[in-house]
Amino acid sequence: MAQMTVQIVTPDGLIYDHHASFVSVRTNNGELGILPHHENMIAVLAVDEVKVKRIDDDSHVNWIAVNGGIIEVADNLITIVADSAERARDIDISRAERAKRRAELALEEAQDKHLIDQERRAKIALQRAINRINVGSRL
């Protein structure tokens, strides 16, 4: 069976390193499915989940919440470099829900006061919290 190596790196170091038969990500240009021998490429990732179908078992799938970043595909090595990323099993959903609520309140306040920069930051924080909740719920 053809396989790829998937590595996810953050400023904290390597957080994921496994072999895969399929990877799904969302880039700023849309969804991207990657199979072995995919054309070499680099793309900007959106804040979204990464799906990795592992080679050890057809039903073994890892889900990782990635808060943007860059993906490089080169010779069956997929490297994702992100500011932050968390595997589903490591996400504290109650903490993510609290972050979501804080972001919602910050967004409301920024909109009421017409604070454009704060509104933009609150929208990003909200998107990240929702992504973490969605990925953490995949277990």
TrEMBL record:
<dbReference type="Pfam" id="PF02823">
    <property type="entry name" value="ATP-synt_DE_N"/>
</dbReference>
<feature type="domain" description="ATP synthase F1 complex delta/epsilon subunit N-terminal">
    <location>
        <begin position="4"/>
        <end position="85"/>
    </location>
</feature>
<comment type="subunit">
    <text>F-type ATPases have 2 components, CF(1) - the catalytic core - and CF(0) - the membrane proton channel. CF(1) has five subunits: alpha(3), beta(3), gamma(1), delta(1), epsilon(1). CF(0) has three main subunits: a, b and c.</text>
</comment>
<keyword id="KW-0066">ATP synthesis</keyword>
<keyword id="KW-0139">CF(1)</keyword>
<dbReference type="InterPro" id="IPR036771">
    <property type="entry name" value="ATPsynth_dsu/esu_N"/>
</dbReference>
<dbReference type="InterPro" id="IPR020546">
    <property type="entry name" value="ATP_synth_F1_dsu/esu_N"/>
</dbReference>
<keyword id="KW-0813">Transport</keyword>
<keyword id="KW-0406">Ion transport</keyword>
<dbReference type="GO" id="GO:0005524">
    <property type="term" value="F:ATP binding"/>
</dbReference>
<dbReference type="GO" id="GO:0045259">
    <property type="term" value="C:proton-transporting ATP synthase complex"/>
</dbReference>
<dbReference type="InterPro" id="IPR020547">
    <property type="entry name" value="ATP_synth_F1_esu_C"/>
</dbReference>
<keyword id="KW-0375">Hydrogen ion transport</keyword>
<dbReference type="InterPro" id="IPR001469">
    <property type="entry name" value="ATP_synth_F1_dsu/esu"/>
</dbReference>
<dbReference type="GO" id="GO:0046933">
    <property type="term" value="F:proton-transporting ATP synthase activity, rotational mechanism"/>
</dbReference>
<protein>
    <recommendedName>
        <fullName>ATP synthase epsilon chain</fullName>
    </recommendedName>
</protein>
<keyword id="KW-0472">Membrane</keyword>
<comment type="similarity">
    <text>Belongs to the ATPase epsilon chain family.</text>
</comment>
<feature type="domain" description="ATP synthase epsilon subunit C-terminal">
    <location>
        <begin position="90"/>
        <end position="135"/>
    </location>
</feature>
<comment type="function">
    <text>Produces ATP from ADP in the presence of a proton gradient across the membrane.</text>
</comment>
<keyword id="KW-1003">Cell membrane</keyword>
<dbReference type="Pfam" id="PF00401">
    <property type="entry name" value="ATP-synt_DE"/>
</dbReference>
<dbReference type="GO" id="GO:0005886">
    <property type="term" value="C:plasma membrane"/>
</dbReference>
